[in-house]
Amino acid sequence: MTTSEARTRLETEELQERLREIQALLAGKGTGLRATLDALHPADIAYLLEALPPEERLAVWDLVKADRDGEILVEVSEAVRESLIASMDSRELVAAAETLEADELADIAGDLPPAVIEEVVRSLSAEEREQLRAALSYAEGSVGALMDFEHVTVRDDVTLEAVTRYLRRLDELPGHTDQLFVVDRYQVLKGTLPLARLIVTDLDIDVARVTVREGLRLKPEDAASEAASAFERYDLVSAPVVDGDGRLIGRLTVNAVVDHIRARSAETQLAEGGLTKEEDVFAPVLDSFKNRWAWLAVNLVTAFIASRVIGAFEDSIVHLVALAALMPIVAGIGGNSGNQTITMIVRALALGQIQTHYWRKLLAKELGVAALNGVVWGVMLGVIAYVLYGNVALGGVLALAMLLNLELAALMGVAIPWVRWKLDRDPAVGSSVLITACTDSGGFFIFLGLATLLLI
What is the distance between the alpha carbons of residues 80 and 84, in angstroms, rounded to a whole number? Predict the structure, then answer.
């Protein structure tokens, strides 16, 4: 679960009201801050912590019940989690970590000091240590990194009545349990028993007769993005995860899938803007600088190139001042079109919708769209330029430049993510910066170059 899920339990307006209430209590304008915090879900507290400046955040953090520290650390963003962990001593961190399940502990293990992890591991049972080791062994973005180990298994040689008796002896079912997993004595998965089928079937029947043999089976090394697509396609709540021998080792649930989708979406948005990682809104200036400087440097270089392109046509601009007023239009429309193309391509890549042999068809399609847009908007802008400046040739140059720059935007909008994909890099990283650089410099060069050739 992530803090964005807080919005599904409490409306954003209500959370904002709670935030104002907490700030008032911190300012000494009311009482009962601890009681207010105790009544909130850990995800809601995490959301509120992210919205508070460091001083107020730590004051609230100190009031949170110790037995909920671990749950909240799992919920907050990585950037905020680092600041909270830095404020805690080893004893507090160990106490917080010991309240977590193995899969939850694996989520925050990278942010905890090694000494704390070692002490927590010593307190775990042999089974929990093995689960933690397994969770940490899988690569980020894999099914193994998202799966949990809480599930209910049954044998297929017992009756449904025996299964229901077994279930009644449990304190509670693991969250998002919509099916039981049918295994043999060696834990090899034989199928699933949906709870809906268990409820409506005669209890004297053996499990084997109502077991669903066919169904999605995931492996821990499978890509989480592919599993997410399967969950969406088949409307799944949970799915078994098996090893190479077919033995059940865990399950993937819809809440973990939703978390992964949201995290990937956030990463993509940050990457498109050139941010290397999620940033605490109230992070120190130096930390924010380190997160942002790289792609700003790239942007500076590309802006300098664009300025030199303009400088190369200074004489043309002096002769026809209208060029200075019109050239930002060509570059701006091209940048917008390129961003549309690159956003669609990056999304399609994330969903696994583009196969290697379809790139040429995709490029041809985007060039066709650009041509149609270029003709429609180019003619319109050409007419407007003629009305404003009374120069038919200027209108024609503007229309042609618009068409050519949109074609360039389409070409680069496909080429940039394709090149990064071929190099096994994230196609979203810096895409907005790169496409804007291409369409700005290209747009200026095309428009001013045509004007110099045909008008000056």
Answer: 6
CATH superfamily of 3-137: MgtE N-terminal domain-like (1.25.60.10)
- Fold designation for 153-270: CBS-domain (3.10.580)
- Give helix 54-63 / helix 78-86 axis angle, nearest 10°: 70
pLDDT at 278: 67
**What are the residues whose beta carbons fall under 8 Å from the beta carbon of 333, sequence distance 6 or more?**
377, 402, 405, 406
Question: In 3D, which of 416, 415, 333, 339 has the Cα closest to residue 374?
Answer: 333
Is residue 54 predicted with pLDDT exceeding 50?
yes
- CA 342 from chain centre, in angstroms, equals 17
Phi, psi of 411 (to 5 degrees): -60, -50
Model pLDDT, residue 447: 94
Q: What is the DSSP letter of 298?
A: H
Q: CATH homologous superfamily of domain 285-454?
A: SLC41 divalent cation transporters, integral membrane domain (1.10.357.20)
Span of 64-73, 114-123, 283-292 with lowest mean pLDDT: 283-292
Residue 5 is predicted with a pLDDT of 44
Residue 3 has pLDDT above 50, yes or no: no
Q: How many whole angstroms separate alpha carbon 115 and alpha carbon 109?
A: 11
What pLDDT is stored for residue 202 in this prediction? 95
- Spatial distance between the Cα atoms of 30 and 22, rounded to a whole number of angstroms: 9
Return phi, psi of residue 244, to 5°.
-65, -20
Tens-place pLDDT, residues 326-358? 999 999 999 999 999 988 898 888 767 787 788
- Phi–psi pair at 283, nearest 5 degrees: -65, 155
Q: Length of the chain in residues, anyone?
A: 456
423 Cβ contact partners less than 8 Å away, ≥ 6 residues apart: none
Let me know: does 181 contact 189? Beta carbons within 8 Å: yes
User: CA neighbours within 13 Å on the CB side: how many for 288?
Assistant: 6
